[in-house]
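One such given next:
>
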Amino acid sequence: MFETTYLTDNFLIAMPTLGDPNFSKTVTYICMHDQNGAMGIVINRQMDIDLGDIFENMEIEVQDPQAQQLPIFEGGPVQSERGFVIHQPVRQWDAMLTVGDLGIATSRDIISAIATGKGPENVLIALGYAGWNAGQLEKEMADNAWLNTPADYDVIFNTPTEQRWHAAAATMGIDITLMSHVAGHG
């Protein structure tokens, strides 16, 4: 009997051959994966806006000026207006999912806490997410579109954005730039 391995709390690292412009050279943190499908947040596509723009849009008063400078990431092509805050340490927020040692919050209260300097120590804020229907991610894995490895929280919170694709692969001992861009040819 075939046993399915789910990839919750893992990174999906786009193979150099992955041509989909939504995912080329991305690292996606998988928040949920089960028999019904998968959901993840891309952690290395910084947008041209920062949290100050979000505070303004949500009419949130800012007491911590440094919070305004936090980058916003393009979490994926699904529901690009919906915000997600990956954070550590995990605290309880109004709408939150705990995955491994991380929390993923979607409620206004965490954004308000960040604005006042009372939010979590480590945060990554993204708009939108990546989603896969039942069996879709498994097929993409079988087609060698992705590498997967357990998530490394240092890559999420402490690695410069432009280095995350390489750094995530390096956690597996792989130099992603040395991987073939042409599959099946020797």
Notes: Residues 51-58 form the longest helix (8 residues). The two ends are 34 Å apart (CA to CA). Residues 10-178 form a domain with the VC0467-like fold (CATH 3.40.1740.10). The beta strands are 10-14, 27-34, 37-42, 46-50, 71-74, 78-88, 96-99, 102-105, 122-133, 146-150.
